Amino acid sequence: MTTPALHKEPALLKIEGLNVAGLSDAGERPILRDLDFELRRNEILGIVGETGAGKSILARAMIDLLPPGVRRTSGEVFLRGRPISQLTDRERRAMRGGDIALIGTNAKALLDPVEMVGKQVVRVLRSHRRMSRGEAWQRAVELLASVGIVDPEQRARAYPHELSGGMAQRVVIAMALITEPKIVLADDATLGLDATVSVQVLDMLVDRARTLGVSVVLITHDLGIIAHYCDRVAIMRQGRIEEMDKTAAFLAGPQTSYSRELLEAAKARPVPALRRTGSQDAPLLAVRNLTKLFAGSRPGEIVRAVDDVSFDIARGQTLALVGESGSGKTTIGQCLVRLIESTSGQILFDGEDVTKVPEGSFRKLRRRVQMVFQEPYVALNPRWRVRHLVDEPLRMLERMPSAERLKRVHRVLELVNLPSRYAELFPHELTAGEQKRVGMARALVTEPDFVIFDEPTTALDIRVRAQIIDLVRDLQSRMGLSALFITHDLNSVRSLAHDVAVMNRGRIVETGSIDDVFRQPQDPYTRKLLSAELAVEHEAAAHGVAVSRVEVTG
To answer: Who's near 185: CB < 8 A, 6+ residues apart?
Structure first.
């Protein structure tokens, strides 16, 4: 695989001294600061940075479509040598979607829910090209086929809610490409998609861009995407570009301390050797033939969300449960803590079948078995302060004086690296990473023996994700926790788990140690998952190996 030669020719898009500020009662707050860079023809440029770095505002500044309360204070954006601030309203409308197309996150939110997707593609095309409705419809169907949508004529007549997340994202990409733009801005376009679907979408986007000679700006917080797809990379921090270089050169040796910190945080780190002190005894958790059935959307339809699943977790061991969305991972976790009741099978915790324990008696077990939920802001009552959120399990499960409870809250907040003053804050006053930590503190306050972590690193910034991984590793070591780690983030699995179980459509298709499964996967589905992992290939780049997944076709 090779990346295209970057010829010294006039830039397709050029940004000079760009400054953007947000307006408020307190005055102007800088958002973008003195940005200077160029985008070349047929180039894939990656822009990476943490939340608040200014990436999305930059994308909107490129098409002169800043949100209310935000304005360009100085500098300019040039498209093929012409300042976009000098375009007429008509030219500016033609530029947006015509010369430059923007692809955002959450495709289903971007599509009109009450109109067929084919008609939405047609509307975009006819706003930029003169053609009949029939010609536009045929062109729309052809483009849906070109972005990998099976049975495009039928899908064109579907509504957004009838499409999967990956298929909806392909429709949005089709809408972006149908006017044959010169530049595509993809702003976290695959955020929230499964790894396999994300790779399919990115492969398709980059391949179509190479074929059509389109320049692409991939805006992301995932360095794995940068490593595999981009010719050059810009590292953003607090509205500035910290570093800009060819991707291979950046991966081989970042120039700034912040860039080095980001790259190091993106790498997987082997899990410390498992403490096998209890491994010769009966497992702490033994799941046998677990099945969970749900009623389907059609009369009489039965969905086997969990289908005859069995696995063990030893004391002090972490098992990763991996698979795509809808494979049944979270359903298993909820069955283990009896948030939902299993249909059949056994869940043996410390030798006792918890499926047969009366609800009143199971409450005593809840202090030993806890769960950290995927979306902490949804799981945390927004009206409660952190101390009330964290001590709720104590109030429900243990008789303890209020002063003692508060001491326990402060102690467990310290355990998850949050100052005791955070006890008086509300969830909306916390960052996403801090919310995750509060969720962990809430689970740990009863001093459990076993914790279920449901997607603890999903959608977090690079450094925050690394901090959460370090925190979980530290808790495992200090508390001797046994854990079930539910995720589709294979990079985190390498850093946190000793063993892995791979789920597909409600069944476990492969299980074993991390080394065995990741180095020599036996099941085709496992191989498919691993092939979709976009790990940072530092060693390959250091030896001059190309990082692009897609060959240049033009």
So the answer is: 59, 62, 63, 100, 101, 102, 103, 216, 217, 219
Against a cut of 0.90, is the pTM above it?
Answer: no
C-alpha atoms less than 13 angstroms from C-alpha of 554 in its C-beta half-sphere: 13
In this structure, the answer to whether residues 510 and 488 fall within a common structural domain is yes
Sheet holding 27-39, edge to edge: 27-39, 13-24, 70-79, 82-83
Cα gap 312→324, rounded to integer Å: 21
Separation between Cα atoms, residue 307 and residue 301, nearest integer Å: 15
CATH number for the domain that contains residue 504: 3.40.50.300
Going by C-alpha positions, the residue among 70, 80, 83 that lies closest to residue 16 is 83
Domain around 404: 374-447
Measure the CA–CA gap between 492 and 465, rounded to whole angstroms: 9
- Residue ranges of alpha helices (H) inside 147-194 are 152-156, 165-177
Beta bridge partners of 485: 320, 453
d(CA 422, CA 435) in angstroms, rounded, equals 11
Nearest to 194 by CA among 168, 221, 160, 166: 166
Q: What is the pLDDT of residues 328-361, one digit of tens each?
A: 999 999 999 999 999 999 999 999 999 999 887 8
User: Do residue 149 and residue 225 come from a single domain?
Assistant: yes
At 540 the three-state DSSP class reads helix
**CB–CB of 253/68 below 8 Å?**
no
Residue 2 lies in a domain: no
159 and 251 inside one domain: yes
120 & 208 share domain? yes
Residues 188 and 200 reside in one and the same domain: yes
What confidence tens digit (pLDDT) does each residue in 75-132 have? 999 999 999 999 999 999 889 988 999 998 777 778 999 999 999 999 988 888 888 9
Query: In a 3-state reduction of DSSP, which class is residue 443?
Result: helix
- Show the tokens assigned to 167: 């298929």
Same domain (yes/no): 52, 146? yes
Indicate whether 120 and 170 sit together in one domain: yes
CB 518 within 8 A of CB 494: yes
Same domain, 455 and 353: yes
